[in-house]
Amino acid sequence: MKNTESTFLFVRHTQKTKRPEDGSSTSDEFYAGITEEGEQLVREKTREHLLSLIEESAPGSVVIFAGASDLPRTKSSTRVSVNELRNIFAERTDEYLVLDEKDINSMVDKKTESTRNVLSETVAANPEKKVILSYPLFLKEFSLVTPESGTRASEQDWKTGGAKEEWTPYLTELMKIANDDEDQAVRTWINNGGKITTADGKILEGPNPVGVAREYINALKRLDNITKELFPRRPRVVEATAHSWDIDVFIAYATHGGKLDVSAYEEIAKGADQETSIISEFEFPVIKLSDTSGTLEYRGRTYPINAPELADDAQAKSG
Q1: Which stretch of DSSP H or E encloses residue 253?
Q2: Left if phi > 0, otherwise alpha if psi is -120 to 50, otherwise beta: which for 60?
Q3: Nearest 5°: phi and psi at 155?
Q4: Which residues pair with 67 in a beta bridge?
Q5: Whole-number Å distance between alpha carbons of 212 and 249
Q6: CATH class of the domain defined by 5-142+210-318
Q7: Do 31 and 76 form a contact (C-beta atoms < 8 A)?
Q8: For 166-175, what is each residue's pLDDT tens digit?
Q9: Which residues pair with 197 in a beta bridge?
Q10: How does residue 144 score in pLDDT terms, banded at 50, 70 and 90?
């Protein structure tokens, strides 16, 4: 089976708690950083949107929940979604194999084998099934903390609870300018390029939106390379959970030739329904990449992916 196309989902996390140490405990597991309503929202949207995508994926697909940011709500959103898929496919074990992080860790003898080998061997041993794996990596590209605004969590911090989330002076001023309207804040962020000059002449610096979009492309390419190496002869659906604003600018940048301005953001935000808003909780674009081209589906519209970083890759592969 020749693998010529990869599908990527960059999913926004679900509703977050006011305090990061709080979480949802309505089920057998505790999900840090998300509300009880947020947990139920993930379960509903997994059934309404993600399930059909998995069922319609190519025979033998590997669906891997492969990444999250350094904030607990992203990994928790992933864990809830996989738990719901396990419930859905409980009576369909002849078609689907679902393994979460605990399952995978229990299969690995750290003294004699690597997790990567176990994943590869497990998928190879189930050629007739679709295999769903949850083993999210810490993707530094998805961090809300940039070199300009603070210190990112280490991988060990992430494993034991995640980064400490604090509003920077830039974000505080940005939300003040936008009157706490997130949609307007994204527009303002794009317009000012991550820099605000206050009335007293002080320059406040936050993430550069173009830089954020490029980081997401780097994450996509890294996930593509890792999963191709692990599952070279299987179709792949790769999920990673991240944050609003960042996903919004990534979509606009990737579908507008590396041009990021308010008009590009407004076009992708309106979609087919013509109602502008930032990406909603547990909403996601569907990104499909072949060796020579790519498309991005979002809010009822399909765009060619023409960001220069991805276009250069496709040209190199086709050449």
Answers
A1: helix 246-254
A2: left
A3: -60, -35
A4: 137, 240
A5: 8
A6: alpha beta
A7: yes
A8: 778 999 999 9
A9: 203
A10: confident
| Whole-number Cα distances in Å, 285 to 7, 43, 72, 93, 303 | 10, 18, 21, 28, 11
Cα–Cα distances in Å, from 18 out to 45, 64, 166, 243, 256?
22, 29, 12, 16, 35
Amino acid at the residue 305 = I
Whole-number pLDDT of residue 141: 93
* Apex 266 CA angle, 260 and 269, nearest 5: 110
Burial letters 163-196, b for 16+ CB under 10 A, else e: bebeebebbebbbeebeeeebebbbbbbebebeb
Q: How far apart are CA 295 and CA 231, in angstroms?
A: 22
Residue given tokens 């859905």 in the structure block? 88
Which tokens in the block code for residue 245? 């604003």
d(CA 30, CA 132): 21
pLDDT in tens, 173-190: 999 999 999 999 999 999
Rounded CA gap, 24 and 135, in Å?
21
- SS in 3 state form for 63-84? EEEEEECCCHHHHHHHHHHHHH
Contacts of 55 (CB under 8 A, 6+ apart): none
Alpha carbon distance 70, 86 (integer Å): 25
The structural domains of the chain, with segments of one domain joined by +, span 5-142+210-318, 164-208
First to last CA, the chain: 22
Q: Which residue has the tokens 């926004």?
A: 12
Mean pLDDT of 10-38: 92
